[in-house]
């Protein structure tokens, strides 16, 4: 096989396999990946200003003792009822200031 023929074969095989393998919809950096995840979860700032946290409090911050997702609750009972645990699951409260509530 001549040099020209082998180059042509490698070029055709490379194009058939997808070229360089880069996908336009995938993030190229960690910062870009975090930004895309925040947009998917609805946590990204619309104005492009700096976002200092992963989530923002929803509810009265002065009464935020228990958290389900990103919503604050004053009492454990209210947080457990908002978690909507199945009958076979228990409401678990973990941590403090504010405590995370989840079903186990």
Account of the protein in words:
The chain is α+β, with helices and mostly antiparallel strands and 104 residues long. The protein has three helices and four strands. Strand 3 and strand 4 form a beta hairpin.
Strand order of the largest sheet: 2-1-4-3
Mean pLDDT equals: 78
How many β-strand stretches?
4
Stretches where pLDDT falls below 50 for ≥5 residues? none
- The end-to-end distance, rounded to whole angstroms, is 65 Å
SS-derived structural category: alpha+beta
Q: Sketch the topology as an H/E string, one letter per element.
A: HHEEHEE
Q: What is the radius of gyration computed over CA atoms, rounded to a whole number of angstroms?
A: 25 Å
Q: What would you call the shape?
A: elongated
Percentage of β-strand residues: 5-15%
The helix tally amounts to 3
Major sheet details: 4 strands, mixed
Helix fraction by DSSP (H/I, runs of at least 4):
25-40%
Topology:
Elements: H1 3-16, H2 30-40, E1 66-68, E2 71-73, H3 76-83, E3 91-94, E4 99-103
Parallel strand pairs: 1-4
Antiparallel strand pairs: 1-2, 3-4
Task: Fill in the keyword field for this structure.
single chain, 104 residues, alpha+beta, 4-stranded mixed β-sheet, 4 strands, 14% strand
């Amino acid at each position: 096989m001549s040099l020209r023929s082998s180059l042509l074969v490698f070029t055709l095989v490379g194009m058939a396999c997808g070229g360089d393998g880069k996908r336009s919809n995938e993030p190229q950096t960690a910062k870009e990946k975090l930004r895309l995840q925040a947009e998917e979860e609805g946590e990204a700032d619309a104005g492009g200003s700096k976002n200092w946290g992963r989530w923002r409090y929803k509810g009265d911050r002065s009464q935020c003792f228990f958290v389900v997702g990103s919503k604050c609750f004053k009492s454990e009972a209210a947080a457990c009822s908002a978690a909507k645990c199945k009958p076979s699951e228990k409401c678990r409260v973990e941590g403090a200031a504010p405590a995370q509530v989840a079903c186990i």
